[in-house]
Write a structure and sequence with these properties.
- This protein is α/β, with parallel strands linked by helices and about 140 residues long.
- The protein is about 45% helix and about 20% strand.
- It has a single domain (about 5-135), classed as HUPs (Rossmann fold), CATH 3.40.50.
- It has a 5-stranded parallel β-sheet, sandwiched between helices.
- The relative contact order is 0.22.
Amino acid sequence: MAKTKMIVALRDLESVESLVTLACQVANARDAELLALHVVEVPMVTPIAADDDVLDQPGKEILAKAQQHAAQNFSRKISVRLLRARQAGEAIVGEAQEWGADCLVMGHRRLSLVGEILLGSSVQYVARHSPLQVIVEIPPVKQS
């Protein structure tokens, strides 16, 4: 029987610790292999394969922080993958299918209703198109 595979999709540095913690807890319970994924959304005016390390640097930092957090807090080694795409949601679903993942963990940033309708979101795309289990972490509303 093949080992269970999970992906944790990471968008920004601020959410790395909470998402990697959740993903490691679920992966440990399922004895699953874990892959941290960051998708660099490349603007239409820029070629996907542009030789521009500036595009990739933030994603590399996010993935390094994910590996460090998993190792320090869960004694877990995780694989990482950096992708470039026009739309993160499509890339996440495609990578999950290609890698043979059974489960996907991702976060959702709270946007305004108009922003959600006009811009859409990676979470909405993944929820509608992913053939696998999706666990979404939604941060609490900040009280002012």
